[in-house]
User: What shape does this take?
Amino acid sequence: MMQIRKVIELEYYKFRHYRPFLVILGLYIFCFVLSGLSIKYLLDWFLEEQKTDDILKHFAETGLPLFDFVDIWQNLGWLATVFKWIPAFVIIISVTLEYSQKTIKQNIIDGLSKKEFLASKVALVAVISAGSALLLLMLGLFLGLLYSPVKGMSYILENISFVAAYGVEVFVFLCMAMFAAFLIRKSGVTIILFLLYTASIEPILTAILRYEFKWQVWYFPVEAINLIIRVPFQRYALSFVHDRVYGQDVLVALGWAGIFILLSYWLLQRRDL
Amino acid sequence: MSEIILQTDGLTKRFSRRILAVDGLDLAIPRGQVFGLLGPNGSGKTTTLGMVLGVVSKTAGQYSWFGQGEDYRLRKQIGAILEQPNFYPFLSARQNLIVHSRIKDIRKPDTEGLLKMVGLSERADDPFRTYSLGMKQRLAIASAMLVDPKVLLFDEPTNGLDPMGIAEIRQLILDIRDMGKTIILASHLLDEVQKVCSHFAVLRRGKKIYSGSVHDALHSHEAIGVAAEDAQRLAQALSSCSGVQSFEPEKEGFRVQVIPSWNAAELNTYLVGQQVAVHYLEHKRSSLEEKFMAILKESDAVLTPGQQNAGS
Assistant: This one.
């Protein structure tokens, strides 16, 4: 019987005094909140500059209804996805540090099973993901209550599933980062390769496969993660938009999370420490 | 028969086709022993400890802790340090001990008492990365003692320390021994094993080539140095003596191995009877080093080149 409390506590005791960790997480929260608060001003400025544009001039008068309830969750959730790399680095550091300091070896010697060690890292991933979703929820409530013309409870709660979807998106992404760290074990190399793959190699590859070879690409991991919250902004220019969370998108992404966790477990079991 | 703390049967680790690090190792370490695992670098000591501690997968054979098998939870009752002390560099001694006690499921660890025992109380709140190697090693011993363990494992505990550090660590290990703990100590330092251990096994190329008590090993190799003006006559007398097992010439006279019931006095009486006037007679206390060399020499004679394997 695995004790969830034990593995969470373990991560807490390990990293509560690790300054780089706290700084990066603080930076994440700071960027998240700051961008949320400043986005309206940026957009207002942008629309002011675009007054002559045929399509956009309409919005210059009314302002983009970015923070209106119902829409706000998808809008903010999609914008927040750029920040998910920051907690990914936290996860990568937390795993690779255990290898560079050989503390993973000492943990196992002291009587932790490899399964429990992995569980403690997954717990860290889960806690950061839940925290991210919570952050989005609070930011959304704050901005919505500030700017939204409609404020009824039913409007607030409609499409609030995007908050949970954001938590899932971060969770799967961090599981991927964790797997990369278990695979490569060196922090610098892991961060560079992870960045390269998620921000450039896979997006370019899937773009080529999709447009040149007409492939379906929803099953690629980064693509699957990005599909959970679809781009919301066509709604302001086009009539059709995916404006809800689709169950199959979440399932595909969670499937990847499972694969990353299992692969990490396989690596841990297979290798000597 | 007292309780067996650690038993291994045919424990084997093959790293690759060429490298057989541990080769069918059988050990049985009863409670209360201070057991030395002795061998040159690369003889498979660390690999053996790695296997019984679950960080190196075994190729064949099995081990059993406390007669209960290989379950990882049994390791919570073991205090072990493999190679270098590994701690979180940004955490203080106290915080590191808390992490260890959480792993070992100890709710109320006696961190203060342990830090005092290893002399780290004053630096207990400084980060681990600021410690000297000796302090790191002492913290490792404190963390090994956290659970009030049934058995402690040390792997080259004095490696890389200065003479003062070596003396401190040895004294700590002796103190722990005097608490009646079972200790398993891997070392390539014969002197260390001789000073600390009650029993030992010698590993070479992953094979156990000797095991027994330190006392017996030392006793069996004690010798008597003897010299006389007339060396030829002395040699004749020695070769016809029933109490002499063997003798060999040394720088000054001969080094004589006598039967167990004899000592220098009996040898002298015999030589006087043979009218050999001895001007030098010394009971040579042997060191484990000599015994070790003798064991290695024997094993070299036994091992044919085809059986030789490199360990790591």
Observations:
- The CA atoms of residues 220 and 260 of chain B lie 8 Å apart.
- Chain B has a mean pLDDT of 87.
- The first helix of chain B runs from residue 45 to 52.
- The interface with chain A takes residues 50, 53-57, 72-78, 80, 82, 84, 86-91, 95, 98-100, 102-105, 143 of chain B (CB under 8 Å).
